[in-house]
Amino acid sequence: MTGASDPQREFAFSKRDFEEVRKLIYQHAGIALSDAKEDMVYSRLARRLRATGRRSFQDYLALIRSGDGAEWEAFVNSLTTNLTDFFREAHHFDLLREFLKTRRDRPIVVWSAASSTGEEPYSIAMTAVEALGGSPPVQILASDLDTSVLRKGEEGVYPLERLNKLSEARQRQFFLRGTGDKLGMARVKPELRAMVRFFRLNLLDPVWSIRQPLDAIFCRNVMIYFDKPTQYAILKKMKPLLKPDGLLFVGHSEALYHATDLFRLRGQTVYQHAEAKGGR
Question: For this structure, is 44 an active site residue?
């Protein structure tokens, strides 16, 4: 790990600075930063020092402590990681497709709890259209802590290389290719975008804005950033929102061994209520 007094760094970054950043982001967002994240924290927040004209990390952290709303938002956005792709962990969408077919005659609500730039909720929407056809009665709630990625998701515009893993048929059905100054870009078609509602939500907030019962929750590759007590608290709040026969999808490296009283394994990184029949 690069030392805090590294002369190649533009700003001095002490262990005290790093510990304060860790404390602030943990208290606000539940994100637990390991020692190995020191260089990442420095590089991302150094951009904020330049943008705000601050000359030291203590000056910058004083701005954060002052409660400056705009900079708090930028601080959180800088420290959240947004790694995503269309149909990431494809087996989840195969299972979702079959699950949706069993609910064909009713309104369906799915929550993407870490929607990032929109690839996951739009993958859910594409799966719903493929499973149910036409304009399915499916609403997708897409939330994230990071407001900058939410704006990108709501816009629904992506470089063509982001679509490389999609078949040509899916690209034609669900995207419009740009021309002129938008050459090399593609926009999600309006009818697909209409299925998704993007909004900011902090999983650590005491009260969530979600009220309607959910058929499925995608909370993938999120829990790895929280310690076990925080994970359990979030899962405990999710359980009553999920219908008794609903599904919870988590990331490939996540397991809920510490929450078996809440959820039981249904398939590969797919869970259901602990009381639900058919689990294993």
Answer: yes
d(CA 185, CA 250): 30
Q: How many Å apart are CA 106 and CA 265, to the nearest integer?
A: 25
To the question of domain 15-79 being in CATH 3.40.50.12780, the answer is: no
Catalytic residue from among 17, 48, 103, 144: 144
Per CATH, is 90-273 categorized as 3.40.50.150? yes
Catalytic residue of the set 9, 44, 162, 264: 44
Residue 234: phi and psi, rounded to 5, are: -70, -45
pLDDT in tens, 36-87: 788 888 888 888 888 889 889 989 998 888 887 778 878 877 777 666 788 8
Per domain, the residue ranges of the chain are 15-79, 90-273
163-218, pLDDT tens digit by residue?
Answer: 988 999 999 999 999 888 888 899 999 999 999 999 999 898 889 999 899 999 99
In the residue annotation, 48 being an active-site residue is answered as: no
